[in-house]
Amino acid sequence: MTITFNKESFRGDYSYHNSATAIRRFPFPFDRDEYMYSVNMEPHKGGRPGSVFEARFDVDEHYVAEMEDRAITLSRDPMRCQSLPHMTLAGWDVLELIMTSKAQDYPDLFELHRDGNRWRWVNRPLGIDDTFTFLDETTLPYGPMEYITRQTQGDFAVLDQREGNLWMDAGMVTSQADWSLDFDIGMNFFEWHAPVPRAAEMGIFQRALKFLLNIQQDTPARRLNWTMTVNPRLDTSPETYPEWGPEKRSLTPENLGQKQYLRVELQSFWRLPRSNGLLFPIRCYLISLQDLVTVPKWGRRFHRVIRDLPEDLATYKGFIVNRPMIVDYLSRFDDGAPTSPGIWPD
Amino acid sequence: MTSAHSIASSPRYAPLEPRACSAALMIADDAGMAAIDALIGQNPELGRKATILRIGATAPPDTLPAALDGALSQARMGLQVWLAGSQGLIARAQALLLAAGLPKGAIQSEHRGTAARRMQCVHCKTLAEGVTTDPYTCPGCGRALFVRDHFSARLGAFQGVCIDAETPGDIPEPQELRL
Amino acid sequence: MIQLRLTDKTPLSPRITRFRFQHPDGAPLPVFSGGAHVMVEMQDGDILRRNAYSLISDPQDGSGYEIAVQREDQGRGGSRFMHEQAQPGMLMRLGQPVNLFGLNLTARKHLLIAGGVGITPFLGQIPELDRLGADYELRYCVRSRDEVAVDLPGAQLHVSDEGSRMDLDGVLGAQPIGTHLYVCGSARMIAAVLDRATALGWPPDALHSEEFLAPAPGEPFDVHCARSHKTLTVGAHQSMLEALEAAGIDAPWLCRGGACGQCETDVLACDGQIDHRDHWLHDDERNRKIMPCVSRFRGQLLTIDR
C-alpha cells in the first residue's frame, strides 16, 4: 500500500483537504436517518479492505501533517500529554501494542526489530530510526506513551482499572472535542463523562463501563462518535477556546459547505496486558460538508439527522447556533428518496 | 442558576456520620464547626480521639498544608477524616489528603456556609478561591469565565471557561451562585 | 482459548502441584499482569470441566504459563482430574489471562495476606512488585508447615500449629497511609481479614480480595430459556451455565466464579426463589438478573433471556 502524505495545515490557512480516496473511505457514522446515543460497540478485528477499520491503527494521507500539528500544540502547552506516576508500565504497553501493530499492518512504513529488550524502531514517514531498551525510560527521548503517540494519529486516553472502574490517569490529547486532559486526569469513568447530557439517565454509562471492564487481550472493540467543527481544526480544546470560538460565528450560507466539517471519532478499546489497563484511542476524521454531499446517500441522511437532532444534543455538540444554516445547506442535497441501511456509500 | 450535585463529577456532600476508625481527623472552618459538633454529639467517643484542625481567622487557609502535614506525619491506615465548611476548604483539604495517599473512601465531607466555589481557569490555569458569581473574572488572565459544574477532585476545583469566546465582549450580568 | 502442551508437573506440597504449559510450537504466549488467572479446560470422560487458576509464573515471561492446583477431594472433580489424569505431554485448552485481582498501582505500599493455596495470585504479583521497586509486605499463613508450597524469602510465614499465628490487628494497625490490602484464601479467612480491617477504619477502596467460587451443588431445578425456546433441567452437580452449554445455548463467560459479570442474564419470570451466590450483582438488580455460573433456583419455574 502506498500512501502519499498531504502537505496541509490544521490551523492558520487551514489547507487540510481530503483526496477522492479519503472521501470514499470516510467513516460516516450514521447507519440510519436518525441519531441517538447508544453503546454501539463492535469487535475491532479488521474491516472492509481499504476502510479505516482495516488496520488496528489506521494510517492515512493526513499522518505526517497531523503529527506536525501535534508537535505545535505540545510546544505551546506541554500539559496536553500527561501520565500520573503509576501509569508508566501502561505506557510501555501502549508503545508495544502500537509498534507491533503498525509494523505488521504497514511493513513498508514501519519496522520493529526486537532482540530481547533491545528494540529498534523505524518510522519511515517521519524519518525516525531509534534503538532503545524496552522498559527503560532513560533510553527514549520522552516517556513511552508520549514517544509513540507523537507518532500515531488520534488522541489517546490510557485508563487504569481498579475498584470496578476505569480511571483516566494518562493521555495524549491534542485533537479533542472540547475536553481538557489537564482537568479530567485522575477522574473515573462517570466523572469524566459527567458533562454529557442524557446518557447518564439512560443508563448508557453503566452498560458501557461493564462492557469495557470485560474487554480482554484478544477482544478489542470499537465504536464511532461524532461532532461538528468549523474549519478543519484538530486543536479544539477548552484551553484554546478563545482562539477558535470566534470562528464558529464566521459561517455564512456561501462559505458553509467549505468551512463546516463533520468530525468523526473512531474510538477503540484495548486491554493492556502488562498493566491490566485499557487503551482508549480516539481517532479523529474530518470532512467538509461539500465533500460529504458528494456521496448522495450521506447527503440525504446527514440532512435528516441534523434536522431532527434533539436540542440539547445539538447544544452539547456545539453547533446549535449554526444549525438552521447547516440544515438549510444540507436540504439542497436531500430529495427525500429512501436511503439504504448501513454506513457505506451505495 | 448553577448548583452543585447536578452532575456525576460534582462533589457529594452527605451529612457527616460516625465511622469506625483507629484515629480521627476533623477539619472545619467557622461555619463547618456546627457539623463537627453535631457529629461528635452523635458519638462522643469519636470526639475524644479526634484531632480537630480549625481553619479560620486565627489559622488562615494557607496554613492548611502545613497543618495537614503535621497531622499526617505519624498517621497509619485506619485514619478517618471528616471535613466541614466551605466548598473551597473541603476541596483543598481533600486534594491534599488524596495527594498524601489517603483513599477517598476514608474521607467524608459536609458543606456548610456560603455557596462560594474554588475555580480553575481552563485557559491560564489560575485557581480562584471563594468565587461567588457566575460569570466571574479570572484573577490570572482577566477573562470572564462561566462557572461549570464539572469538578476535579485532584485539583480540588470546578472548571471556569471563557463565556464570550464566540462573541467577544458579550458578557451576561454576573449572578450570585446559589447552593 | 489456546491449545497448550502440559510440559511439567511438579508436586509443591502434599496437596499442591505445579503445572507448566507451553505452546506446542514453542511460540511465546501473551504476557499478563500479576494476579491474573486462566481458565483451564478439562475433558474428564464425557464431562467438560472449566476451572480458573491463578497464574503463578512471572507475568513478563511468555515462555510458558504455570498454575498451582490444590487437590480438593470434596470438590466437583477438576482438581482431582489435574492431579490424577493430567500428565506431561498432554494437550489442553487454556483461556486468555484475565485479571480480576490486579494490584492497585497508586498504592504507597501493598500488604498481601495469603491463606494456604491463596498464595497463588501473589506469586505472579511479587516479580511485578520487585520490578517496580514497590514497597510491599507479604504474610503467608498456613495451618501446618507441610502446607507451605513455596519458599519465599521476602515473606513472613505464619504457621498456626507452631504457634506463630499472624497478629492481624498488629499488622493492620502498623500500615502507613496509602497502603492497600489484598487478601486471598478461604472464604472464612477473607471475611475475617476484611471485617477486622473495616472495624479498624480501613476504607473499602483500600481493600481487595479474591475468592473463586466453585459452583456449589444444590437441588436440581428447571429453567426456561425464552429466546431459545428450550426448557432445561440443571442437575445437582451442574451449574446453570454448564446446563446451557450442554444444551447448545451460548452464554458469554470469563471467570465462571461469580466475579466478572460477563454471564449476567436477565430474568424474565420467576416463580420461586433465586439463590444468588455471586459477587457481582447489586442488591437492586437481584430481582431481575442472575449469574448462571454460580447461582441456582428453588421453585416452580425460572424464565431467563437466553
Automatic annotation (TrEMBL), chain A:
Q: Which Pfam families match?
A: HODM_asu-like
Which protein is depicted?
DUF3445 domain-containing protein
Tell me the InterPro entries matching this sequence: HODM_asu-like
From TrEMBL, chain B:
Pfam families membership? DmmA-like_C
Domain Dimethylamine monooxygenase subunit DmmA-like C-terminal: residue ranges:
118-161
Return the protein name.
Dimethylamine monooxygenase subunit DmmA-like C-terminal domain-containing protein
> What organism is recorded for this protein?
Paracoccus laeviglucosivorans
From TrEMBL, chain C:
One Pfam family linked to the record? Fer2
Q: Which organism is it from?
A: Paracoccus laeviglucosivorans
Q: Per the database record, which ranges form the 2Fe-2S ferredoxin-type domain? A: 221-306
Q: What name does this protein carry?
A: Ferredoxin-NADP reductase
**Domain named FAD-binding FR-type: residues:** 1-104
GO molecular function terms here? 2 iron, 2 sulfur cluster binding; metal ion binding; oxidoreductase activity
Which UniProt keyword terms apply here?
Answer: 2Fe-2S, Flavoprotein, Iron, Iron-sulfur, Metal-binding, Oxidoreductase
